Amino acid sequence: MKALKLTDFEGEWHLERRIEDSRVGQSGQLIGLATFAPVNDEPGLLKYSEKGTLRMQDQPPLDATRSYFWQQTEAGIDVMFEDRRPFHQIAADRSMPDDTHHCAPDLYHVSYSFVKWPDWQAMWRVVGPKKDYRMLSRYRRA
User: Global pTM?
Assistant: First the structure.
């Protein structure tokens, strides 16, 4: 598989996310759309935005949104929070990169899989004093 570049993600993606929360014994699903769009006057930078409907067990559906910035670097792709603080990195030379983000007292670990590109996925494992869940997000071209 070729090394992925930021421009490979540009456009719209169908998003399906499964959430398994061990701490509260609930599962849920988010169905929506993720968009990677260029940021004016900032080459090598895309804004990731997702919108969807979140359904957790025995709770009414919720509208859910999330945004990040993705930036091309020599090492791969840096993912940043909306305020541009660093979040994690996606290594360019691996078809299954992973990384960890410490947000005391919680720990976030992500494993990406680009093996079936252009379909891809991100698996998050989050643990902390009040958190214990897994999220699997699957993406396919819209």
Answer: 0.93
